[in-house]
Design goal:
Low-confidence stretches: 1-33, 426-451
CATH architecture: Up-down Bundle
Radius of gyration: 24 Å
Largest sheet: none
Shape: globular
Mean pLDDT: 76
CATH superfamily: MFS general substrate transporter like domains
Number of domains: 1
Structural class: mainly alpha
Number of helices: 16
Strand content: under 5%
Distance between the termini: 45 Å
Length: 451
């Protein structure tokens, strides 16, 4: 019997990604550029352009306060600490919103937009110190809003085994902006030693480009949240869940201890400028030189941290800062440019070994659904501790001089390193313990052919 036949076209079957694979980020085959997600590079470009803008202001700020408003070392130290720490006022709140709504990009865009508008405000308030301070604090509020959501997108776009490398790539691109910004400021000040208005105007125009890159090109990422039955009682808040995590508490304690002995770069570089008798145009170049070292070291240090342990690299970076304090205390002087260069190199290596590495430590320790909040809590603790550190360094400088202040901070940082080394010991999970909600769990093998 003859049966009619028909041609059947077989369509390829596309399996939906499992929650565990989704938590790992995009498939490696979809990742261009050395296996890292494009978000890593686009966020890096956003930070690069934004840092050109922000560093132009940051590097001239001590000179601006000194020459225009007559601030002394103690006042600059207190202002620098508050300027750095005011971001803590909104950091955790913005992170909780980003985690709850899983809208990391929108929250980050609000922060970048506020910082951009603050540059325009500086042009209007020049000459009045109180409105100028208010505008500068708005810039820091924007930074507090954007930092944790941006880092959360970065971590959610990266496989766990490459977190430190991914943060290293981002920080490397970020540091390119930190190099270019002070160079632009130095060129402007070389032509006009009091050309602060031109610095602020260029800074605003550049910041608009950074906001555009984030809004138009960066893809938002959401954590894979497993379905759970509705609890009989109200679930604890994200900060409460993190507070009961022993490993996260240890990281918070380590962050606070180390930051209490780490004053802001502005007050420390001002001490170097005074010790080495550098001119106004040369002052921004201290930031440039440090950023160049950071630029060269960020990716190798990130890969090293992924390989040998992030905690070990973090503490090694703090030891390098102790050496920088010693150089500032005993070696920096008007006739010793080599020791000034050594100080700059040491600070750059310290930043490369601590900034992104600490964020990768936190990203690996916090469940994906709470990651923005966890990053924000750590950033807030560091900011609040640095307020005290910068103010204390400024007071110690005023009372005893920069060299004794540096010696005191070196001793304090050594003590903080010793305590942190004990706290960073890895806690092994109990056998059979279930992973926390939102943790990244490898998918079980399917028995198929490996690709």
């Amino acid at each position: 019997m003859y049966l009619p036949t028909r041609t059947v076209t077989l369509e390829p079957v596309v399996e939906p990604p499992s929650p565990a694979r989704a938590a790992l980020g995009p498939d490696r085959r979809a990742r261009p550029w050395r296996g890292l997600d494009r978000n890593v590079y686009l966020l890096g470009m956003t930070s690069l352009v934004t840092d050109v803008s922000s560093e132009m202001v940051t590097v001239v700020l001590p000179l601006y306060l000194l020459s225009v408003y007559g601030f002394g070392p103690a006042q600059i130290g207190a202002f620098d600490g508050l300027y750095t720490g005011v971001a803590a006022l909104v950091c955790v709140g913005a992170a909780v919103v980003a985690d709850r709504r899983q809208r990391h990009k929108r929250v980050a865009a609000v922060g970048y937009g506020l910082s951009s508008l603050s540059k325009l405000g500086l042009l209007v308030t020049t000459g009045w110190w109180a409105p100028t301070a208010a505008v500068l604090y708005v810039d820091r509020l924007g930074k507090g809003i954007r930092t944790a959501p941006r880092d959360a997108i970065l971590s959610l776009s990266t496989a766990p085994a490459r977190l430190a490398e991914s943060f290293g790539v981002h920080r490397m691109l970020d540091t390119v902006g930190a190099v270019l910004g002070p160079i632009v400021a130095a060129v402007v000040l070389a032509r006009d030693p009091v050309g602060f208005g031109a610095v602020f105007a260029i800074s605003f125009l550049v910041s608009v480009v950074g906001v555009a890159i984030l809004v138009l090109l960066v893809d938002d990422r959401r954590a894979a949240i497993p379905a759970r039955p509705r609890p009989a009682r109200r679930a604890p808040s994200r900060p409460a869940r993190l507070r009961h995590d022993a490993r996260f508490r240890s990281l918070c304690t380590v962050t606070g201890l180390l930051a209490l002995a780490t004053p802001g770069e502005a007050i420390v570089f001002l001490a170097v400028q005074q010790q080495a008798d550098l001119g106004a145009a040369a002052f921004p170049l201290l930031f440039v030189s440090t950023s160049v070292v950071f630029l060269l070291a960020a990716i190798p240090v990130g890969r090293l941290a992924d390989r040998i342990g992030r905690g070990a690299v973090l503490l090694a970076g703090e030891v390098v800062l102790v050496a920088a304090f010693v150089v500032l205390a005993v070696a920096v002087g008007p006739s010793r440019p080599v020791t000034v260069a050594a100080f700059v190199v040491l600070v750059g290596i310290h930043l490369a070994a601590t900034d992104g590495v600490l964020m990768s430590l936190v990203s690996a320790a916090v469940p994906a659904v709470d990651r923005t909040t966890g990053l924000a809590v750590v950033v807030t603790i560091a900011a609040l501790a640095r307020i005290a550190a910068s103010a204390a360094f400024g007071v110690a400088w005023t009372v005893a001089g920069p060299a004794p202040a540096s010696c005191g901070f070196a001793l304090g940082l050594l003590a903080a390193i010793a305590v942190s080394a004990r706290l960073l010991r890895t806690r092994r999970p109990r056998p059979g313990a279930s992973p926390p909600v939102g943790a990244i769990v490898p998918a079980p093998p399917t028995g198929g052919r490996r690709r």
